[in-house]
Amino acid sequence: MGEKKKEKEKIKLRGQMKLYIQWPSIVAILLVAMNIWVYVIDKRAGILMCIFVVVYIIMAGCLYLRSKSVILKDLIEFAAQYGVVQNTLLKELTVPYAILLNDGKAIWMNDLFKEILGGKPRRDVPISKYIPELNQSIFPKEIEDTVEMDVYYGNKEYKAELRQVSVEGFNDTGLLLQIPAEKEYFIAVHLQDVTELNQYIKANEEQRLIAGLIYIDNYDEVINSVEEVRQSLFLALVDRKINQYIAKVDGIIKKMETDKYFVVLQKQYFKQLEADKFSLLEDVKSVNIGNGIPATLSIGLGLSSDSYSQSYNYARVAIDLALARGGDQAVIKVGPAITYYGGKREQTAKNTRVKARVKAEAFREFITLKDEIFVMGHKLTDADAFGAAIGICRAVASMEKKAYIVINEVSASLRPMYECFVRDSSYSDGLFLTSQQAIEMANENSMVVVVDTNRPQMTECQELLSKTKTIVVLDHHRQSSDNIENALLSYIEPYASSACEMVAEVLQYIVDDIKIPRIEASSMYAGIMIDTNNFVNHTGVRTFEAAAFLRRCGADITMIRKLFRDDIGAYRAKAEIISSAEVYYDKFAIARGTDLKIESPTIVGAQAANELLDISNIKASFVLTEYNGRIYVSARSIDEVNVQIIMERLGGGGHLNASGAQFDHTDMEKAIASLKQVIDEMIEGGDI
Predict the structure, then answer these.
(1) Which pLDDT belongs to residue 469?
(2) 448-507, pLDDT tens digit by residue?
(3) Residue 477 gets which letter from DSSP?
């Protein structure tokens, strides 16, 4: 009894409870002070009040001594019950909860956490054995740090939250567990089952609507090749193919015009179209009732997470891009990302020049409004870019305006033609400018004309594009997603053989009976000749018409041949490249050019790629040449392989049968391995 009494005496109240118990003593002191004041005023009243104060103090003292032990007992019982309730609640909490050591082993987990791990998880096994994502590498490194991540266990998805909880001083009180002083913390883990939530999110995402546009991009040419009595039947068969294809994926299709369709489908079915790589493109080509050429489609699909109207705008951007790339393909725009499918065949060239005339008239209006006009092609300017730039300068001169050509580096193959203009006294010294000179002269009222490329990073001076608001683009390469977007006038014709062909057509509409000097006509003719490999590749009716126009203007074929002859070093380098060729998949020729010791290895590489196509059974050739700290790829084909989509995988582009790309290094083996990997992937995917 004595020991229990001593233990009780040691137990003391603290905090608010102690203050609450002491309130009667404080009131007693106040009453005593008040009693003294009353006694001074009135002795009889003071004596009477003193009696009441003494009685109050006696009663309060008795209650305090008696209730203190009762209160302590109740508090201890409450604390015990609260601890049991708290432990029960935590153990049976509907949120999976566990406490881990720094090595990932669990020292405690509630019932639901155990249930998730299979009922009776082993305590001596790290949690990562059950859930690999919860390993030591992702544990929080600082006190109160929180790590959130998605984990998977069984067929459930969980959102895991890990927090480092300090237990500093644990070793001073812990009798069962000793923790190193520098690691006095636990890792608290709780899981939130988000399986159903993610399913709803996924279902909602898959049910989003994709807007699309489908165009018959060679409608006029196909209809003209069909007998009049069969035209309705032909259109009905094409309609049936398109409607069946969209109906197969539970989509809605509405015919807007004779050659244009609007479609709507759910995102979940869009994956089916991706899986068969938009087989509709090939199905429509099989429709043949006597038409001389197959019908081809352009498909543009757009998806925006913001609004359905934005999805339609994306579809319009996608269809415009598909048409600018030559048609016969599907372009998918999901936000900023753009994906291409198809485009394996060359688009049929249009014989009409209506588009050229319309663009020429718009271009003429721009020329009249500007005083300073800068013309530039792509980096490492070739004969086509140079000839097209010269042609634009002639158009500007015919309007009595001044134009400048921006060119930084003149290649060895282009230098003879370039020097012809430098030596000619009829051309001013300021005709050719470097990038720095052009930037210093240009202002917001200037106009920039870009020829033979539509990619800003490929231009001779990309900074010049930001110096003016008036930009005109004339190019014959397929448009890519990183094209010059702020051009006021964009004339891109993928079926044209060269930029010089396009400029030759435009010149005929700028000024009636325009007079082109012999040297200028020769430079433009040379551009067509070089890009078509002497009129062998990628030529159409309009190519020969443009060449005939330039010949009438005085283009000198003999002079062109002399100017573009190879020296003995370049000829030997070409032979060395061809001798290094290896045949890949029995149909791809891959050659390399290193340490060629010539001034323009890229030009020689392009020539070698053309000559490799003369080998039987070779469907495409790739020549990699090292130049100025980079590796340049020249890709060529005849008709069976689309080298343009191969080069796009490497960050390049171009035409179906003439394309290129660049590597930002000089590791030839690595570059060839990358090229082979792309070819392997595209063959496995059925893209080539």
Answers:
(1) 84
(2) 999 988 888 888 888 888 888 888 999 887 776 677 877 888 888 877 888 999 999 988
(3) S
pTM of the model: 0.57
- CA atoms of 341 and 279, how far apart (whole Å): 10
Helices (H), 347-463: 354-369, 383-398, 415-423, 435-441
- pLDDT for the residue numbered 177: 47
Are the C-beta atoms of 128 and 104 separated by less than 8 Å?
A: yes
552: left (phi over 0), alpha (psi -120 to 50) or beta: alpha
Rounded Cα gap, residues 685 and 205, in angstroms: 27
Q: What is the rounded distance in angstroms from the CA atom of residue 632 to the CA atom of residue 624?
A: 6
Q: Which amino acid makes up residue 577?
A: I
In the numeric block, the tokens 């060895």 are attached to 412
Contact 364, 393 (CB under 8 A): no
- Looking at residue 207, its amino acid is Q
Q: What is the distance between the alpha carbons of residues 17 and 447, in angstroms, rounded to a whole number?
A: 85
* Greatest pairwise CA separation for the chain in angstroms: 144
Closest to 312 (Cα-Cα) out of 197, 448, 213, 432:
213
- Three-state SS at 373: strand
Residue-wise pLDDT for 604-635, tens only, equals 888 889 889 888 888 899 999 988 888 899 99
How far is Cα 249 from Cα 267, in angstroms, rounded to an integer?
10
Neighbour-count burial of 516, counting CB atoms closer than 10 A to its CB (0-12 exposed, 13-18 middle, 19+ buried): buried
Q: How far apart are CA 62 and CA 13, in angstroms?
A: 18
* Residue 3: both structure tokens together: 């020991």
Determine the average pLDDT of the residues in 184-196: 77
Transcribe 301-356 into DSSP letters.
Answer: EEE-SS-HHHHHHHHHHHHHHHHHTTSSEEEEEETTEEEEEE--SPPPPP---HHH
Name the phi and psi angles at 670, rounded to 5: -65, -40
> CA quadruple 555, 559, 561, 563: dihedral positive or negative?
negative
541-552 and 499-510 are packed helices; what angle lies between their axes, rounded to 10 degrees? 60
* Residue matched to tokens 């490249």: 577
Between CA 153 and CA 147 the distance in angstroms is 18
Q: Please name the residue that has the structure tokens 């079915």.
A: 269
Distance in angstroms (rounded) separating the CA atoms of residues 135 and 630: 43
Q: Which residue's entry shows tokens 């790629």?
A: 609
Strand order in the sheet with 337-342: 252-257, 260-266, 209-216, 297-303, 329-334, 337-342
Average pLDDT over residues 191-218: 82
For the four alpha carbons of 450, 455, 459 and 461, in that order, the dihedral sign comes to positive
List CB contacts of 384: < 8 A, sequence separation 6 or more: 377, 452, 498, 499, 500, 527, 528, 530, 531
Is residue 680 classed as helix, strand or coil in its secondary structure?
helix
Rg of the chain (C-alpha set): 42
